[in-house]
Every structure is written in structure tokens, then in C-alpha cells.
Amino acid sequence: MRVVLVTPGFPTSLDDHHKPFLADHARALAATGADVTVVCPAHPDAPRRRDVDGIEVRRVRFAPARIEARVALGESYRVFSGLAALWVIPMIARLTLAAARQARNRVAEDAAVIHGHWWFPCGLVAVAAAMAAGRPVGSVVQVHGSDAAVTTNAVHRWLARRVLRRAGAVVTVSEDLRDWAASLLPRRGGLSPPPSAEPEGRRSGPLLRIVSMPVGAERLGTPAPAPPDGPVVAVGRLMSEKGFDVLIEALAHLPLPERPDVVIVGDGPDRTLLAALAMRRGVTVQFAGAVAPAEIGEWYRRARLVCVPSRREGFGMVVAEALAAGRAVVATRVGAAPQFITDGTNGYLVRPDDASALAEALTTALQSDLGAGASSSPAALAPFGPQAHAAALLEIYAELGGG
To answer: What's the distance, Cα to Cα, between the start and end of the chain in Å?
Structure first.
């Protein structure tokens, strides 16, 4: 099986903290014997072609280095606004040609699939490249959450509808996103039926499946008891959707003697704004900066409790990782968090963007000693591991390729 992954960015090494779940995804597929190549936009600190832990990564130039750098750092939806939006045209064209070439030139008799992450721009690229490859090539569009969130007007929805409907399969990372994708697909009683219920040649639209991104549990180490004097740790990119400003406001709601030590691990465009907010609200927060994926387990081990105050998540990798590391989690009710967290057992769930509710949940969790250690069982997390992830995708690829 030949798999071409089209992504808006990809780690430059296993120590790169930007989108490590994409590296886990590619490695999980490669571990099954699939021939995996990644096609993505250029990165200022990486050569045009490089192997990352055995995965061939081809990076495509499309714009001045300053534009490419921001895209590589996950700011595509901020970059492509105003006149800068014109750069999306050469990016889509160059990625499409590169992906089609990889699918066409490296495949003989094996089945080929082009798998685009985020419906725009890489899902659009996957669909176009599969058509341009000049041979039967399946296309998969994966929706992660931010791409659905920015689909805010009639033009966006028109384009998203055409991309999803022309894909061979649409994969989402949560039930909410599945429902969003289903609203754009042909009406067939709601969702696509299971393969056994759909005769060959009778499908009127793409397959629609839920496949979460893999939880990289091997980076987390063996779960250990939480230190009773450890901090509350929050992990993620410093940007509005992650809700770290809500966490700071929640701390300001608490009397000074009841405020826990808080460490936010990650970097991003909102660091200065968050530091200013903490100072203005009289809240002490440590900003630890970005860490390599292999080091994130150490921060979970230091934590008494993990907080995930996101306004939105497609899946919510930090919740799954923290529970796998044996830490209780206070999180907002977004993404897959409700699948993992049971109130009072391994954490608490609150409404997003509600600082008062978050403050109350943090206090309850710490006073009830949930922070002393809680986790999801291995059985509960197994469906989100690399093996299950790869197996689910290979089943979809096989359906597209006819076996």
C-alpha cells in the first residue's frame, strides 16, 4: 500500500514540538508495512527532502521564506488573510503536483491513497492530486476541528462541501466533527452506512468514519503517583482556541491562599498577551516554553493535576496523554474529553469559556485529592493507540482500493 500524506506542516525531527501527532500518525502507518511519504509546505529550518525516523518527507517551496515559516508553525489560517491569501494559490498548485507525482511515480501494482489533513488546504490538495495522478488513486480528507471552525460563511461551506463530496473517504477525529461533515455530504439518512450494508458500486458519497489521532503513550513513561505539592500543568499552543486566558481568569477568581502553582507548557503567538493578562489580574503563572515531545512526559509526572481549558478541540490530545500518564484532568467539555473523563473519578468537565466554573472545578479536584493520581484504564485508551489508529485507516484504504 502506497500512502501519500499531505499536511500543512510536519515535524523536522522527533524532537520538534510542532504537530508531533502527525509524526505519530505517519509512523503508525509505516509500522504496518505501508510505503509512506509526506508532502508538505517548505520549512525554513529543513531541507527539501529528509527522512524523519524512516518517513520520507518532501517539502515544497511556494512563497517567500517569512510566509513559509508562519505556515510551518501552524498559522495558516492567520497568514492567509488579506493580500497574503494570494499565496494559497501557488501552495495548493505546488502541493497538488508533488502529491500526484508521488502517487504516480512510486506505485506499480500496489494500491495508492492520498490522505490530506484538514479539509483546507490539504484535503483540497488530496482530492485534486488523486484526480491528476492519471491512475486509480483513492483520496481521504481528514477533518481535525480548526478547519471546521473557520468554515464560517456560505463561500467556505460551498468549498468545503465540494471537497468532502469529491473525496473517497472523509475521516474525522470526533463525533461532533463527524456530524459537521455529515451535514455537508449527500443526505442518505444521515451518515454513511457500514461497508457490509452498502453494495459495491452503490455508494452515492464518500465513506464517513471517525478515527482519532494516535496517543503517543511511549513518550509518557510509566505512570507514577502525582506529587502532592506539584503544580497544575496546562499544555498547548499559546493561542485563543486553547483558552489559557480563561485559566488565568479562573485563578483570579480564587482567594490568594487557594491558588495553586500553574505552569503552562508551550509557545505561540499569544504568549505576550497571556503574560500581560496574568500581570494585570495579579496571577502568577510560569510559562515554560515549548518542549520536545520526548520531554512532555516529564511535565505530566511533575503535575499534581492537568488543566485543559480549550474553547474548542477536534480531539484533545492533551487530555488523553495526561490520563495515560496517570494524571487527573480538569477540562472543558469539547472534543473527545467527555469520552475520557468521568466527573469525580479521573477529573471534572466544565463549560468552555467559563472562568468561574473552571475555578470551582480546579478547587474541587485539588481538595478531593483527585490530583493524587487518576487515569483511564489501558482498555479505555487502547482504541486510541498507534496500532488501532493504523488498523482503522488501513481498513478505509482497503475499501477505497477494492480490497
So the answer is: 11
Per-residue pLDDT tens digits for 243-276: 999 999 999 999 999 999 999 999 999 999 999 9
Residue 403, C-beta contacts closer than 8 angstroms, at least 6 positions apart: none
Q: Give the span between the Cα atoms of 259 and 217, in whole angstroms.
A: 30
Count how many Cα atoms sit within 13 Å of the Cα of residue 383 in the half-sphere of its side chain. Answer: 10
Is residue 206 classed exposed, middle or buried when 0-12, 13-18 and 19+ CB atoms within 10 A define those classes?
buried
Instruction: Report d(CA 403, CA 398) in Å as an integer.
Output: 5
Residue 181: closest CA among 278, 314, 46? 314
pLDDT, tens digit (0-9, with 9 covering 90-100), for 68-126: 887 877 666 666 666 667 888 999 999 999 999 999 875 555 779 999 999 999 999 99
Strand partners, 208: 170
Q: Let me know if 55 is exposed, middle or buried by CB neighbors in 10 A (0-12, 13-18, 19+).
A: buried
